[in-house]
Amino acid sequence: MIRLLAWRETLGHGDEPDMVEPYDCERDCMTRGAWDDARRAARACARVDLPHVPPRPTAAALYDHAAGSTYMGRPATRLPVVQLGRQFPPGAAPEPVEDGCPSSWSRSPFAFSLIGYLRARVGDGGRLARRAFDDADEHVQDAVELYEREQERCIAHVADERERRRRLKRELADAQRAANAPVARGTARARRG
Predict the structure, then answer these.
(1) Which helix (H) or strand (E) holds 86?
(2) Helix (H) or strand (E) holding 143
(3) What DSSP designation does 149 have?
């Protein structure tokens, strides 16, 4: 739950279409300003602040997003993961379908209760002091530190993904230039000596 909150909050501020929060309740489960129970059921919504809907998860609802990737920092598995008939690589598996929509957990009362204790991040990954954190119970501090570690993992993931895209874009441009380059035709003549 804390990992999901950290990834949701960090991804939610991205400027690239697939580097934003993939499970956005308002964007994906509302129709004309009202909650759409069919969409929520297809995502297996478990939000405690909304009326219960019987879960009927579908691959399309959980994995085909308007924006974002299904990956929310889940630890890698040794084997590919198959959920709802879809296969995902070990390092990019989505959350377990039986847990329901990840957004439900990242928007839980417990997750939101940590926000008042979070320390602001500075550019290099350091944290600004916050009295609420310093005065908090050890368990709260542990939860906040877990959030901070997950936030750093998400930032690193986004940076790696951006670099991977830049590299692929460069490789594609190089291949296109090579394909369009004029072919040198030699006029080699045998030299007599």
Answers:
(1) strand 86-88
(2) helix 138-180
(3) H
Q: For residues 144 and 149, what is the distance between their CA atoms, to the nearest angstrom? A: 9
In the prediction, which pLDDT does 193 show?
Answer: 52
- Residue 125 placed within a domain: yes
Strand duo 81-83 + 86-88: pairing? antiparallel
The torsion angles phi and psi of 81, rounded to 5 degrees, stand at: -105, 130
Total-model pTM? 0.71
Is 29 part of a structural domain of the chain?
A: yes
Least confident of 27-41, 47-61, 101-115, 138-152: 101-115
- Assess contact for 94 and 63: CB atoms under 8 A: yes
Rg (CA), the chain: 23
42 versus 23: the higher-pLDDT residue is 42
Q: Which structural domain range is residue 89 located in?
A: 2-178
Instruction: Kindly state whether residue 192 falls inside one of the protein's structural domains.
Output: no
- Please give the structure tokens belonging to residue 94: 């989505």
